[in-house]
Amino acid sequence: MAAHLAQFFPKIVAFDTDRNLQLDDQEKASLAKAFADGTVEFPSGHMPPPHGDKDKPDVAMMIDHIGLAQETSAIPELMQIARGTHESLKDQYVRIKAIEALARMRVSEAIDLLLQLSQKREGLTYAEPSGLRSVAGDALALMENRPAAAQVRAAYEFAPQAGGNFNVPRRYSRVPLESPLRAQIEGGQPAMARVKTISLGGAYLESVKKLNIGDTIRLEVRSGLRKIHFTAVVRNAGPDGNGVEIVHMQGDDRDKLRKLVQRGLKS
Question: Is the pLDDT of residue 43 over 70?
Fold first, then answer.
């Protein structure tokens, strides 16, 4: 168990507001461990360039690592982020990641907070957006072993791949798609793509556009009449496509993706 996690969140807040670290998975994992151990160094001689928008994905990944590593020392800060009262980490996707981390650790003292996030109303409307409410509801299902828990576990918990060699453990189950979904890579030179597998954390896609490991792309995935938008980073390249990791998305897009994954797991 890391001994200095009290230092962790002030430091990632500093990176969130002042830095734009462009690191690969292994370097991010090393940096997250260094934060937790209180021995922060810039891996591989990286110097922090000026602030940019790409630093929030680093914070989201680090929160994922905290949940996977069962770092209970981080619970107070995770509760603050999930509640939306953290001084700097207020982004909805980062809040969703904090809720997931609390659920992965089965933090019983978070149950009242999750109930509030999923149910609180202000007049006739809910206080929180739908995407965040859905994640809070899933977290409650896991922690209280509700009837929906099996379906939620199917999306979040998977059997490790035999012989797999991953720098960062996969955090969500993948859904193979018998009929690939159409997608568009947005940005400078738009291109069409086909999504062959998808999960709450990423996708595998085919495209005529050459993608390089480390590229950041914006994707619009079409499922029926629904369009799901997210920012992703290319993590690997295969003979027929690329694996991408979702690093940021809006709450309503996350809710659409959640429903798509759950339908796929049922079939």
Answer: no
Q: Has residue 234 got a pLDDT over 80? A: yes
- pTM assigned to the model: 0.76
Q: How far apart are CA 103 and CA 107, in angstroms?
A: 6
- Residue 231 half-sphere exposure, CB side, CA atoms within 13 Å? 17
Tell me if 245 sits within 8 A of 201, measured CB to CB: yes
Final residue of a structural domain among 156, 183, 212? 156
**Structural contact between residues 254 and 93, judged by C-beta atoms closer than 8 angstroms:** yes
One domain for residues 82 and 137? yes
Token readout for 58 is 């680093």
- Chain segment 157-185, per-residue pLDDT in tens: 654 444 444 444 567 888 999 899 999 99
Cα(9)–Cα(13) distance, integer angstroms = 6
Contacts for 159 with CB less than 8 Å, ≥ 6 apart: none
pLDDT in tens, 125-150: 999 999 999 999 999 988 888 777 77
Question: Which residues, other chains included, contact 251 with Cβ-Cβ below 8 Å and sequence gap of 6+?
Answer: 92, 93, 96, 129, 130, 131, 132
Q: Where are the alpha helices (DSSP H) in the chain?
A: 8-18, 25-37, 55-68, 75-83, 92-104, 111-119, 130-143, 149-156, 251-266
Q: Are 196 and 143 contained in the same domain? A: no
Q: d(Cα 245, Cα 96) in Å, to the nearest integer?
A: 16
**Can you give the CATH number for the domain in which 143 is found?**
1.25.10
Neighbours of 187 (CB within 10 A): 13
Q: Are 24 and 131 contained in the same domain?
A: yes
CA-closest candidate to residue 245, choices 226, 229, 257, 232: 232
Cα 183–chain centre separation:
20
Task: Using the structure block, give the residue that is written with the tokens 């998975």.
Answer: 25
